[in-house]
Every structure is written in C-alpha cells, then in structure tokens.
Specification:
Blueprint: H1 23-29, H2 35-42, E1 48-52, E2 58-63, H3 64-71, H4 76-86, E3 92-95, E4 100-105, H5 109-112, E5 119-121, E6 126-130, E7 145-148, H6 159-177
Antiparallel strand pairs: 1-6, 2-4, 2-5, 3-4, 3-7
C-alpha cells in the first residue's frame, strides 16, 4: 500500500480539522497511489473519494432489490442492521442514486466470483468511497454513504458471506416477481 504519512493533521480550507484520516480511513486511502488526494476528496462537498480497486480491496456490486429481498425490508435502519449481522460487520457502501450496494471484499475475489446477478469489480475500476462519517443518506443528493461502516483496517467482508447474501437475496427477489 502507499505511504500514508501526513494524513492525520490535515485542515480544510475553512480551517476546521476534518475527521482524522486514520485507522480504517487511512487504510482505505492507502489503496490510492496518492493517499493525500483521497483525504482532499473526502474534504470536498461530495465527501466521496475515487479509490482504485484491486490493490487493497475489491467490491461486489449488488442490486438493491437483491439486498432488500434478502433483508425483507427496504427500511435503511433495518437493512443496515441486517447487513452488519449477516456480513459479520464487513463494510458495505450504499449508492442510492444507482440503487446499488457495494460489499468490500479482499483482493483476488473477482478471479473466483461466479454470481452473475452481482458483479465483483476489481483493477481498472475506481469506486466512490464515502468519508468514514457519512453513515446515512444525504437527503436529496442521493450520494453514497456507509450502510455498514468500515470498523477496522482490512476488516473486509468475506466472499462466502457476500455470495450467500447474493444467492439467497436473488432467489427471494425472483419469488417476489412471480
């Protein structure tokens, strides 16, 4: 991973000290060739940084209907709690604008991923990763936020847990359609 020195004491243009770019946040930033750029993007109005996938983590892009069928609800608090339990606290990003969830998984997952309903995205793709304190929808902007926040460095979802969610949720979503 990239050198992350100097990320902890960053101030924004408004002279407020931004949330500490440390621990899990620092680990996420280290997947970018220039970690300080990630912190600058998290300080932007969108509070979202584009981080290249494949080096530190990959992401499984899951349609919201699959997640909601798995959980049996579309209530954000219910979905978040159920995902946290089902994925053993593994991090999940919610993208309400495109009706998707992204479960963060270890590098190499894409090579063996075999669930066509949910794509595992890797090298060659960047993911919009919200700042660590973005844990709920931002009203009308529909920008991404953490459905299940990353609690520790390298604390990713297991591919097996995500695959179970995808297969069960897809089966239930198909039942709902009939």
């Amino acid at each position: 991973m990239a050198d992350t020195k100097g990320l902890r004491s960053k101030r924004t243009n408004s002279s407020r000290i931004r949330p500490v770019c440390g621990t899990a946040e620092e680990w996420l930033a280290s997947a970018h060739p220039s970690p300080s750029v990630v912190c600058e993007e998290w300080d932007s109005i969108a509070q979202l940084a584009l981080i290249p996938l494949g080096r530190g983590f990959e992401a499984v892009r899951i349609p919201e209907d699959v997640v909601h069928a798995f959980v049996g609800s579309d209530d954000p608090a219910t979905v978040n709690a159920h995902l946290a339990e089902s994925l053993n606290g593994g991090p999940v990003i919610r993208d309400p604008g495109f009706h998707r969830y992204y479960a963060l998984v270890p590098p190499g997952t894409a090579e063996a991923w075999r669930a066509s309903v949910a794509e595992c995205i890797t090298a060659g793709t960047c993911l919009g990763v919200p700042r660590a304190d973005r844990v709920e929808s931002n009203g009308g902007t529909r920008t991404s936020y953490w459905s299940v926040p990353m609690s520790r460095p390298n604390g990713l979802c297991t591919a097996a847990d995500v695959l179970t969610l995808v297969k069960v949720g897809h089966g239930l979503a198909r039942e709902d359609e009939s």
